[in-house]
Amino acid sequence: MSAQTAVPVYEEPRHRLVLTHQLVRVMDVRIAPGDTTLFHIHDDFAAEQLSSRVLMQIHDELVIEVAAGEWDAAERIVRARMGDAADLAVPLDVQIGRGQDWNEAAH
Fold first, then answer.
1. What integer pLDDT is reported at residue 52 of this predicted model?
2. Has residue 8 been placed in a domain?
3. pTM summary value
4. What integer pLDDT is reported at residue 75 of this predicted model?
5. What confidence tens digit (pLDDT) does each residue in 52-63 have?
6. CATH number of the domain within which 73 lies
């Protein structure tokens, strides 16, 4: 296996720095047609006419507001999308927490 060199996020070819501040950098990330992202969960929710929504993504974690009665459908969609997020020789372990706030949902 060859060693990989880390590429700073601002040097990624599909990333464009939009705003920089002492504490914040805002990037515009271009997603090519056909690429799969975690945000395709939005499309899956809409296709199933769910009111649930992704509030934010932090690296490989999502914070999702799940509407009443939509837990099973939302969990199925998230497990499928997160589990297929990368083509690996081993399956990705998808862990889901549930709670009224971040602390309660932590697992």
1. 93
2. no
3. 0.64
4. 95
5. 988 887 777 888
6. 3.30.70.370
Give the count of domains, the chain.
1
**Residue 19, domain member (yes or no):** no
Is residue 50 situated within a structural domain? yes
| CA-based radius of gyration for the chain | 16
Q: Provide the residue range defining the domain that includes 95.
A: 36-105
In a domain? residue 31: no
Contact 74, 52 (CB under 8 A): yes
Q: Tell me whether residue 68 is exposed, middle or buried, using C-beta atoms within 10 angstroms of its C-beta: 0 to 12, 13 to 18, 19 or more.
A: exposed
What pLDDT is stored for residue 50 in this prediction? Answer: 95
Question: How far is it, in rounded angstroms, from Cα 33 to Cα 17?
Answer: 21
Query: Phi and psi (nearest 5°) for 62?
Result: -120, 145
CA dist., res. 60 & res. 73, Å (int): 20
Rounded Cα gap, residues 1 and 8, in angstroms: 22
